[in-house]
UniProtKB/TrEMBL annotation:
UniProt function note: Catalyzes the reduction of the glycolytic intermediate dihydroxyacetone phosphate (DHAP) to sn-glycerol 3-phosphate (G3P), the key precursor for phospholipid synthesis.
Pfam family for this entry, one: NAD_Gly3P_dh_C
Name of the protein described by the UniProt record: Glycerol-3-phosphate dehydrogenase [NAD(P)+]
Any one of the GO CC terms: cytosol
Catalytic activity: sn-glycerol 3-phosphate + NADP(+) = dihydroxyacetone phosphate + NADPH + H(+); sn-glycerol 3-phosphate + NAD(+) = dihydroxyacetone phosphate + NADH + H(+)
Broad class of where this protein is predominantly found: cytoplasm
Domain Glycerol-3-phosphate dehydrogenase NAD-dependent C-terminal: 186-324
Molecular-function GO term, any one: glycerol-3-phosphate dehydrogenase [NAD(P)+] activity
Lineage: Bacteria, Bacillati, Bacillota, Bacilli, Lactobacillales
Length: 341
């Protein structure tokens, strides 16, 4: 059986744990990081303490800060870098890839939209990596905290691609006794569900920070899913995707767990901290903050009503008071639930 050569770009918590899974499953993995000292820690100590504490990586996993070394001979290239740098990293990657039969499958496991263009990540990758330098683009997404995957908790996610054969190849690379992957062809829905749920998670955290309980959380998640679905369908997604792993599944895990950076950020906002202080405290990218602006602008563009998203936008970008926004939401005109308005 031929060993698959895989380049994982981005050595944060999610990228490094996905790299670990691939090694455990028999893949030959090169993990790329911009920081030589991080590569040295992974290679010499088999740890990545800044991102995943008290976890020992397989000794077969090698890391490098040399992008060309990471990509040499790669049959699969997995992007796990933050959304704002996907375009610049893809631009660097493209000249280093083979063509024809040597072209790799391109996979990404990042969640968000590019703020300036509102592009989904697969759209950015398609624009920056020429067709002859890729076999297909696959989106890997679903309810999955890196900390729990590291403990080998049972995890189910989705591999979505317009090229089902590529999705199935990625599915085989990741599947094992604790990590299960389903395939899907609705790339738009999977990416939008993954991006927009971070906005709702900010709201869920804010409710917790204000002291609200399970009733409020359930209401926010349910009506938040209605908003995500409404805008997603307007942008070309299939409605059934939003009741799947990358829709309601990802929404549940992100809105209910202290592992979620977006939930923790929202909680701090609810406790009265400023957005600037929250961003500084987190020390890592809070995808939902920028995604909220994109979602708000897309809703305006498509003339889609998204009152929860608008309320979170007002708090983040217009310094609105959270309790006032909640009161305005509760006092909206009565509507029929199944109208999804």
């Amino acid at each position: 059986m031929t060993t698959t050569k895989i380049a994982v770009l981005g050595a944060g918590s999610w990228g490094s744990i996905l790299a670990s899974i691939l090694v455990q499953n028999g893949g030959q993995v090169q993990l790329w990081t911009r920081r030589p000292e991080q590569a040295a820690e992974i290679n010499e100590q088999h740890t990545n303490q800044r991102y995943v504490q008290n976890y020992h990586y397989p000794e077969e996993l090698t890391a490098t800060s040399d992008l060309s070394q990471a990509l040499a001979g790669a049959q699969v290239v997995l992007f796990t870098v933050p959304t704002p740098v996907v375009r610049s990293v893809a631009q660097q990657v493209s000249p280093l890839l083979g063509t024809g039969e040597a072209a790799p499958i391109i996979v990404h496991a990042s969640k968000g939209l590019e703020q300036e263009t509102h592009c989904r990540i697969s759209e950015i990758l398609a624009a920056m990596i020429a067709p002859e330098k890729r076999q297909g683009i696959v989106v890997l997404s679903g309810p999955s905290h890196a900390e729990e995957v590291a403990r080998q908790d049972l995890t189910l996610i989705t591999a979505a691609s317009a090229d089902l054969a590529c999705a199935r190849q990625v599915q085989k690379l990741f599947m094992n006794d604790y990590f299960r992957v389903y395939t899907n062809t609705d790339v738009i829905g999977v990416e939008l569900g993954a991006a927009f749920k971070n906005v709702i998670a900010l709201g869920a955290g804010a409710l917790a920070g204000l002291g609200y309980g399970d009733n409020a959380k359930a209401a926010l998640m349910t009506r938040g899913l209605a908003e995500i679905s409404r805008l997603g369908m307007a942008l070309g997604a299939k409605p059934e995707t939003f009741i799947g792993l990358s829709g309601v599944g990802d929404l549940i895990v992100t809105c209910t767990s202290v592992h979620s950076r977006n939930w923790r950020a929202g909680q701090q906002l609810g406790q009265g901290q400023s957005l600037e202080a929250v961003v500084q405290n987190m020390g890592m990218v809070i995808e939902g903050v920028k995604t909220c602006q994109s979602a708000y602008e897309l809703a305006q563009q498509e003339k889609i009503e998204m009152p929860i998203t608008a309320a979170i936008y007002h708090v983040l970008y217009e310094q609105a008071e959270i309790k006032s926004e909640i009161a305005a939401l509760m006092r909206r005109e009565g509507k029929a639930e199944l109208s999804w308005d």
